From TrEMBL:
Top-level taxon in the UniProt lineage: Eukaryota
The name this protein goes by in its record: GDSL esterase/lipase
Keywords for this protein: Glycoprotein, Hydrolase, Membrane, Signal, Transmembrane, Transmembrane helix
Region (Disordered): 62-87
UniProt xrefs under Gene3D superfamilies: SGNH hydrolase
Family: Belongs to the 'GDSL' lipolytic enzyme family.
Bilayer-spanning residue ranges: 21-42
Organism encoding this protein: Panicum miliaceum (Proso millet)
Length: 429
């Protein structure tokens, strides 16, 4: 789901007009400095693996009367270490590169724009803000966890990044169409190419790099974008909305072709969700409820989303014919996310169209003039199951449900599981 700082789309990242070139030059310099510093001082895959395998030092001698507590703590630490080793073995050699908007942004927009994302963001899982526009994890985080590897670090995050398992290029507010937002899909692909060239250059000079040539060849390339492009045309008459979709699909197709030209062979592409069920859209003024479907969602918006997914799926079918040695998978995110609303009781969700963190109370608890991160927000209780976190983005709980369906392969074309693309990694030139 999307919308600039409201979820993948438009508000936080404005059109940059004639300053676009100058802005890219500055940001390019920043990106170069960040990545070169990271490549120079970050240990390579082997060094990182050796470092992570070192056991935690033991605790100092327990004070009299605290032996039982110390023993329990030691057992807990040992269990944690065993779990880390198990995950490390499972995820050894797994590499992902992700492109998208706020649906999969793991802190990129906060880092690059210097935005301080405040509590209660992150409260459900990380217990502090991480730059994700959610109370916890995004779907990409669950994908990484399922593969036994750590969460992907944002490309533009200068502190704490670890690129040994790949890079997340997603930035909240991004569009597939170039020239509309600063970090549109074409720019994200440019950043990937820059990262790859710097890694291979470093290895050629005998230096370490977080990802080697084989890592790029066997990596999984995931993409979740286009939601903001749809948001950008929703003010138009229905026929015009539909007419504006093919150029967006063309840009996604071009991005996949560029990535393929640069060695990518395994693609996992998400369609858009049911944007007509978002509290942000439902809270907009309307004359009456005649445009709502049986589950209370805006039918016209959802019809645009379904058309977008149909066009995207067809474009990926065409790419399979031309990029014959590649695996290209489309995931029907609309079917997955709409099911959360239509069958919400099955998932223990009582208020499928209401925002957990917002303003105004029922039925939607969403006010476009106020952010979730203000002191007077109407906040649901911790542990309550909601689909929408802030009116646009999903909660940790909802993203977990969606991710389980994504990983199942039941909503994929062709019908394959994501894990099978990683476990059968091989290089095809």
């Amino acid at each position: 789901m999307a919308s600039a700082m409201n979820g993948g789309g438009g508000g936080a990242l404005k059109r940059i007009g004639p300053l676009r070139l100058q802005y890219y030059i500055v940001m390019g310099a920043v990106a170069a400095a960040v990545v070169l510093a990271t490549l120079r001082y970050m240990p390579g895959p082997a060094a990182a693996a050796a470092s992570s395998s070192v056991a935690r030092p033991g605790a100092s001698a327990a004070a009299p009367g605290a032996e039982a507590a110390a023993e329990a703590e030691g057992e807990e630490a040992a269990a944690e270490e065993r779990e880390r080793e198990k995950r490390k073995k499972k995820g050894d050699g797994v590499v992902l590169f992700n492109f998208g908007d706020s649906n999969s942004d793991t802190g990129g927009v906060a880092a690059v724009m210097g935005i301080r994302i405040a509590p209660p963001e992150g409260r459900a899982y990380f217990h502090h803000p991480t730059g994700r526009l959610s109370d916890g994890r995004v779907i990409l985080d669950f994908i990484c966890e399922s593969l036994g590897t750590h969460h992907l670090s944002p490309f533009m995050k200068p502190l704490g990044s670890n690129f040994t398992n790949g890079v997340n290029f997603a930035i909240a507010g991004s569009t597939a169409m170039p020239g509309v937002t600063t970090f549109s899909l074409d720019v994200q692909v440019d950043q990937f190419i820059f990262f790859k060239e710097r890694c291979l250059d470093a290895i050629e000079r005998g230096e370490s790099a977080p990802v080697d040539e084989m890592g790029f060849q066997t990596a999984l390339y995931t993409m979740d974008i286009g939601h903001n492009d749809i948001n950008g045309v929703l003010h138009m008459p229905y026929d015009e909305m539909i007419a504006n979709l093919p150029p967006v699909i063309t840009e996604i197709k071009k991005a996949i072709e560029r990535l393929h030209k640069n060695g990518a062979r395994k693609f996992w592409i998400h369609g858009t969700g049911a944007l007509g069920c978002m509290p942000q859209k439902l809270a907009m003024p309307r004359d009456d409820d005649s445009g709502l479907d049986e589950h209370g969602c805006i039918a016209s918006i959802n019809n645009v989303c379904k058309k977008f997914n149909s066009l995207l799926s067809e474009a990926l079918d065409e790419l399979r014919l031309t990029l014959k040695k590649s695996a290209i998978v489309f995931v029907d995110m609309f079917a997955i996310k709409y099911d959360l609303v239509a069958n919400h009781k099955k998932y223990g969700i009582e208020k499928p169209l209401m925002t957990c963190c917002g303003h105004g109370g029922p039925p939607y608890n969403y006010d476009p003039k106020k952010s979730c991160m203000t002191s007077d927000e109407d906040l649901c209780k911790l542990g309550e199951k909601f689909i929408s976190w802030d009116g646009v983005h999903f909660t940790d709980a909802a993203n977990g449900i969606v991710a389980s369906k994504v990983l199942s392969g039941e909503y994929s074309i062709p019908r394959v599981k994501l894990a099978s693309l990683v476990s059968t990694a091989k290089s095809d030139d």
